[in-house]
Amino acid sequence: MTQPALPGPPALADGLFRLDAEDLTLLGGRSASSGLSHFPRQPVCPYTGADDVEAVDLPRTGRLWGWTAVTAAPPGYSGPIPYGLGVVELDDGLRVVGRITVAEVHDLDRLGVGAPMRVVADVVPGDDGRPRTVWAFAPVTTTTDAAVDVAAAAPGDAS
Questions:
Q1: What string of DSSP letters covers 26-64?
Q2: Domains of the chain, earliest start first
């Protein structure tokens, strides 16, 4: 899918992220007593049940933890396939599931565990067929993204 010119189409659901002129920021929660963050934000900590959750902006960068290529459309999905789907461990340690945006699905083969990733906006068809903005993860590919080239993260490299 293509990355939208921000702000782009409406969000798939309210309260998951914030779009500004250049970035998408995931909106999470953090329990003051446990120090644990979660996504999406909930009124109580999903780990401890504490009701001291504070709204937080989650880190925009992280490392690839696991991924796959989705080659069959899930029920109700009318967008293009195949596409990448993965788990990214954000810089605060929270793991978030999302689409992996690459130019071609075979580019997923270039990624390895530990590859640097960043949060981006992506567009998918909504239930009504109209475009909706969602969060996704893209490989860090330039020195301006995070000073690491994704090609340098060889498959299986967990550093």
A1: EEEEEETTT--EESS--SS-TTT--S-EEEEEPPSEEEE
A2: 59-152 (2.40.50)
